[in-house]
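Sorry to interrupt, but I need a hand with the structure work. Could you write out one complete protein record for me, on any chain you like? Just paste the record in under my message, thanks.

. . .
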Amino acid sequence: MVMPMQIPHSSQLIVKVAFRNVRRNWRHSVAALATLAVGFLALALFQGYIEEFLRSQLDVIYSRIMIGEVMVQKKGAGTRQARINPEKYRINEKEQQFLDRWIVENSASVKTNVRTLLLVGMAHMGGSSAQMILWGHDVPEGRIARRKWTWNTWAGHPLRESEPSGTVLALGLGEILGCTATSEDPVLDPVTAAPLPIERPFHCKQSSLMLTVTSGHGRTNALEADVVGLTRAGSRDFDEHLLWVPLRFAQDLASTRAVSQYMIVLHRPSDGPKMRAALRTALKQAGIELEVVDWIDTEGADLLRRGIDLLTVFRGLVFIVILIIAGAAVLTTMMKTVRERTREIGTLRSLGYLRRHILALFAVEAAMLAILAGGIGLLCSVLCTLAINASTITYKGGLLADAIPLRVGYSLSAYSWGFLFLSFVAVVAALLAASGVTRMRIAEALSDG
């Protein structure tokens, strides 16, 4: 029969004395608690802000551009040659039929698929002209792929099936051509950071504009489109060039039934790698040369990837700086707290406490303070996060055209690492300070004043 292990009496006594000392030396305890809690709060808020910023911006980009977990395009579609001769790098009707069949066969996993056709040309309105990037896409499927951005306009309304020649202009392009939003009401929902579904007024010097592109046969094609809305393009550069039209309108303008790409949105984003592999296999067996990729790995996402890499490095450097500052503050506070109790240590030694008992006593005290400070820091972090997220503060960020809501996420990794690191520093600091004092002679420690 195995007897349960009993905690030695000396260990129990050390824990009791440590708990009593934490309460008795409350001034020192409060100073240590404040230092630990503030360090924890700084780590948690910074990490939470960075993680939420990355998550929210990726969510906005994926929603706005109607990005799916599975992207299908012609091989080489992202190369310079494809930009010079885009007609050769489009998905033809036969390839579309195969993809449509595969999507139907996997309908249990597929939420929707959006076909897009990208064209470059000119937009003209009442004597004003501007270079445009025309984005034709399936309208009803696009609404599903936009997730929270179903309503994606700052003025007017999104594209509708009942308006086959409708177009939504980016705000910068609209200003060049003579279309401006006339309402100053708030556009973005402070909670979702997506446009509120309200049809706001706008004014154009003409209700329609002429769009011209060069077809693959060397001809210049032109069609008239009706402006139904204005929106932000996300990037300041694209904001002066982008416009959106229904896919069939774009195909008629380019005299083609081909598309540039398929975006397949899944019910479970985590199924992306599996579904991409399955589609690659199916295409290979059918002898069709199409590229199946994750959009984040394409040339079109190069700027985003570089931005994420830069932000990751920045986050790491600032996180280290905060750790060093918080750690140094905790170390200084704990060492000062222990050294001010030199006479107490001398008294304990005169009562028979061994050096290892005193070191254990201060280590337990530091651990108790760290646990309590972690709880206080966690509570303060949650309350500050709630207050910041409810404040509806916005700010401009880099190349982004839109104001970004200031939001902080709940970072479990920051909570864990912050607590472990600061606890470790507190215990080490207590041991270092106590170690030096316990080496003093008892008489010398008792006479310390």
User: Anything to note?
Assistant: The radius of gyration is 32 Å. Confidence is low (pLDDT under 50) at residues 1-9. DSSP finds 13 helices and 14 strands in the chain. The first strand starts at residue 70 and ends at 74.
